[in-house]
Amino acid sequence: MVASAFGTIAAPLLRRGFSASDGKVAEPIDYQMPAWGVALIVSTLLVFAAADFMVQYTYSRIIPTLLMVESPQAILFEPIKSDDPDAKVDPQEVDLCLVKQAPITSSFRSTVQHLRAKGGKLAIFRGLSMSIVSAIVFQWYIGFFSSFLPMMFAHFIAMVLSAPFYLAWTSIVISNPSPLPWYKRMPNLATVKKVMIPTAHFALAKELTIMLPLYLARSYGFHEMNPEDCMNMGKNEFTMTFAKGLSVLILAGALAFSIYIPANVILTRVQASLLPETEEAIVPFDRTFGGKVVAEEVGGTGALGMLDAWRTFDRSSRVRLLKAYAKVFAMEIALGFAFTALIISEIFMIVGTDLSKFNLDSQFAAVRELTRR
Question: Cα-atom radius of gyration of the chain, to the nearest Å?
Fold first, then answer.
């Protein structure tokens, strides 16, 4: 989470600022934080954790999923003709006009309003129970396979084996509210087989997007550094470290745009093509994906092919998806800055101006211990 990352970076900065006095390093004095101060910081952590969860789940998962499958409807209507008998007739005037409606997912606000209109205030958390179950199953697979396989392979296998739960989650998210519990929305084995290859493709893309930048960062020795080391660097060393860090970010961004996002779109659209006929979609979308889905009754697979899944995702939808991810990134950054600023302000409010009496390490440890309980 971006908020927690800012908190991690802020701690050593605060320690350095609190310990510096007249150019000399002062020994910290044990200071018992008052109960109201602990309650204030813990409540702030809880509020920002809830806000970060909403950004991660609603805006980073649900809305992009709906955006990936929505096909805006086109309305066919006849232009109103003039009642004036002397009006000139335009020979090029068409008898019918085709107007494409604006997508529901064109903005976060319109999407949230649509979801709440369909399923109530909690509709922005639709599929949460299935998401929790899939996370538990995924972690169980990770624990099992990581005992005898490298973590990267354990993640890959766990994600592929969790395909039924991911398929069920997508079906729940893109369909109208249903009274059925999550376990009755699970797909059958024949349906699951149709998403195994797209799921494996997505799992591979995800692992590459995560692991390659991590390996590059480790080659730079970033795993052995901490924020305090950066503050003690010289100008040239800091510039070189910054350039290395920037190269890691560029690689991660390039992989995300080139393989992760397309793989995610492909998997989601293949999953959407398997939505049961008894389920009605919560956003307009073409179940045949432009005639690319051929029913099994007439010799087809009943599912969208991987190449067709990407090709039928038009340019305007791709642009809207990238904008949505950019908005999510901006929201995370803003949330992280707000969290850091508020925590620092609260610490100053609790401690006052006598910062030398405040042992930041012990206070953060106390807060972490309370949050674990």
Answer: 26
Distances (CA, A) of 315 to 59, 126, 266, 310, 339: 21, 28, 14, 10, 36
User: Which of 335, 321, 331, 196 shows the shortest CA–CA distance to 260?
Assistant: 321
Max alpha carbon distance in the chain (Å)?
A: 96
3-state DSSP percent of the chain in helix, strand and coil, to 5: 70, 5, 30
Share of the chain above pLDDT 70, in %: 76
Q: Which domain holds residue 55?
A: 1-62+109-126+321-373
Do 174 and 264 belong together in one domain?
yes
The answer to whether the beta carbons of residues 289 and 305 sit under 8 Å apart is: no
Does the residue 99 lie in any domain?
Answer: no
Six token digits for residue 45: 């952590």
- DSSP, collapsed to helix, strand or coil, labels residue 75 as strand
Q: Are residues 26 and 121 in the same domain?
A: yes
- The per-residue pLDDT for range 174-221, each reduced to its tens digit, is 999 988 888 899 999 999 999 999 999 999 999 999 999 999 988 888
Q: Whose CA is closest to 161, among 127, 188, 195?
A: 195
Q: What is the pTM of this model?
A: 0.79
Alpha carbon distances (Å) from 340 to 31, 94, 364:
22, 60, 14
- In sequence order, the β-bridge partners of residue 175 are 281
Encoding tokens for residue 224? 């052995």
Q: What angle do CA 93, 73, 324 make, to 5 degrees?
A: 120
